[in-house]
Design a protein that fits this description.
The protein has 4 helices and 6 strands. By secondary structure, it is an alpha+beta fold. It has a single domain (18-164), classed as Thiol Ester Dehydrase, Chain A. The chain has a 6-stranded antiparallel sheet with strand order 1-2-4-5-6-3. The longest helix has 17 residues, at 81-97. Its main location: membrane. Pfam families: 4HBT. One of its GO terms (cellular component) is membrane.
Length: 166
């Protein structure tokens, strides 16, 4: 069998992340995410790698979307759990980010993901909606759900983030 007839390629490009890192230090989390959403700032490189995009950003709530593709597959013929986890982690963390003032950042301390059904390229557009549960001075928690256009649940997650104040 010829591999030339079965070989597929996927190419992506991204913008220099230095300007977005600088902008993130001078804007509130909500201002920053709305600038990315409006196309005023480029998305971070990981968004291009996975082909995900932020589609909604409100205080305490963020939605990312992605189209599952063959290049996301694991050896079992389904989307790799790491891709699903990245979508969930992105919406969780960015939901927290919407509530942060300028100069304040965060990082994930703990992430718990529950996979409830397999994702394939036939699943259609996936929506990862993250919502803040608690926003404290140093600790924030959030929850997220990964669904398709009809609302079918594929995975859900919770996170604990540490708020890094200057």
């Amino acid at each position: 069998m010829s591999t030339a007839s079965t070989t597929r390629t996927h190419t992506f490009s991204w913008e220099d992340p230095a300007p977005i890192l600088q902008a993130s230090k001078t804007m509130s989390g909500m201002e920053y995410l709305r600038a990315v959403l409006a196309g005023e700032l480029p998305a971070p490189p990981v968004a291009a790698l996975i082909d995900m995009r932020i589609t909604e950003a409100d205080e305490g709530r963020v939605v990312f979307t992605a189209e599952p593709a063959e290049y996301h597959y694991n050896p079992l013929g389904t989307v790799h759990g790491g891709i699903i986890c990245t979508l969930l982690d992105s919406s969780l963390g960015c939901a927290v980010q919407t509530l942060l003032p300028a100069g304040t950042s965060y990082t994930t301390l703990e992430l718990k993901v529950n996979y409830v059904r397999p994702v394939t390229s036939k699943s259609g557009t996936l929506y990862s909606e993250g919502k803040v549960i608690h926003m404290g001075g140093r600790i924030a928690t959030a929850e997220a759900r990964l669904t398709d256009a009809s609302g079918k649940l594929y995975a859900h997650a919770t996170t604990t983030c540490i708020v890094l104040r200057p």
